[in-house]
Write a structure and sequence with these properties.
Largest sheet: 8 strands, mixed
Shape: elongated
Radius of gyration: 22 Å
Strand content: 25-35%
Order of helices and strands: EEHEHEEHEEEEEEHEHEHEEEEEEEHH
Bound molecules: flavin-adenine dinucleotide
Helix content: 10-25%
Number of strands: 20
Low-confidence stretches: 317-325
Length: 325
């Protein structure tokens, strides 16, 4: 329901983002007549909408195009009355009962807010990376590793995720070259020991920069780098490249909001998915501890929706009765 109090347009729930977590939450809340408006600054469907093929989302035995999956989620949310606005939320200020959100369309107010803004995979910024994105250049091993059964791969990165994901990729690839810019891994000792067990399939190249991803006939064929110790160019023939150089959560707009972030700038929440600000919830990839999958984002969206319903009914975990009585 939308109310106008003191000339303020007040939404029951504003969801920031319209990716899988947001759309899942919107299906639940709008179906229960909780007035739900989503703000999306990019593609409706989030990262799922720009994912070529999704093989591991339950219910689709043969897999499904990411865009089709997100279009179906969007249609389902809109069927129950969820409104999707194209625009960016630039800040959130908690005003006790109401939250004020500054958007590209002006200020709006909400009784509850769900942050489902996801994260962005950090890029290395070399020629070929954008051109071959999702067609040989990937950022998620769980999502895309299985496309490389018995193929050769290059992994770029030297931290925990690069090592962990390389080990995972040995299930599929017959050989992996890991290119590490520094002279050693930044990954934990435990992971490095684990990597040793896979050395029949993995070759590590320290002091090696990644300079270019080269393709032919629409396919990646090699990575060109530089051996920093000799200054010589080096080439790694490959069928695909996985880049693991970090993730940037979309949380910059929360500066000054009171929403607490972890050391990597992901949003901290309690077991009801509420953030440090009463009435502001979080779901999906942007949440600290999230598992970065569509199925888990959708599950968190549904959980957050049920917690938001409790909260709006006045039974939330941190309710202050005086404010809602
Ligand atoms: C190439 C690739 C392949 C993948 N393949 C798979 C796969 O096969 N299987 C799988 O399970 N997962 C896969 N994933 C991961 C999956 O896409 C994500 O886990 C999932 O989309 C997370 O959903 P989310 O709703 O939390 O966030 P997102 O999908 O990231 O959606 C967040 C949305 O919020 C918007 N937003 C951010 N800030 C603002 C703001 N201030 N105002 C308004 N809007 C904002 C963004 O534009 C975005 O659309 C893949 C990811 C990538 C990149």
């Amino acid at each position: 329901m939308e109310e106008k109090t003191e000339e303020k347009k007040v939404h029951d729930l504003v969801i920031v983002g319209a990716g899988p977590a947001a759309l899942s939450a919107a299906i639940y809340t709008s179906r229960e007549d909780i007035g739900t408006t989503l703000y999306e600054k990019g593609a409706i469907g989030g990262l799922a909408a720009v994912t070529d093929w999704v093989d591991n989302y339950p219910g689709f035995a043969e897999g499904i195009e990411g865009l089709k999956l997100s279009d179906a989620m969007r249609a389902q949310a809109e069927r129950f009355g969820a409104k999707i606005e194209l625009g960016e939320v630039m800040s959130i200020v908690g005003e006790q009962k109401l939250k004020k959100l500054a958007t590209t369309d002006g200020d709006i107010y909400a009784k509850a807010v769900l942050i489902a803004t996801g994260s962005e995979y950090r890029k290395i910024g070399v020629p070929g990376e954008v051109e071959y994105y999702a067609r040989g250049v990937h950022y998620c091993a769980t999502c895309d590793g299985a496309f490389y059964r018995d193929k050769k791969l290059v992994v770029v990165g030297g931290g925990n995720s690069a090592v962990q994901e390389s080990i995972f990729l040995t299930r599929f690839a017959n050989h992996i070259d890991i290119l590490v810019r520094g002279e050693q891994f930044r990954a934990s000792d435990v992971l490095q020991h684990e990597l040793e067990k896979h050395k029949d399939k993995i070759t590590v190249h320290f002091n090696t920069t990644t300079d270019e991803i080269v393709g032919q006939d629409n396919k990646v064929i090699k990575v060109v780098g530089t051996d920093k110790t000799t200054g010589q160019k080096v080439e790694f023939p490959t069928d695909g490249v996985f880049v693991f150089v970090g993730l940037d959560p979309n949380t910059k707009f929360l500066a000054g909001s009171g929403v607490e972030l972890d050391e990597r700038n992901f949003i901290k929440s309690d077991d009801k998915l509420m953030t440090a600000v009463t009435g502001v919830f979080v779901a999906g990839d942007v949440r600290s501890g999230a598992t970065l999958q569509i199925a888990s984002a959708v599950g968190e969206g549904a959980t957050a929706a049920l917690m938001i319903r409790e909260y709006l009914e006045g039974h939330g975990p941190h309710m202050e009765p005086a404010l809602y009585g």
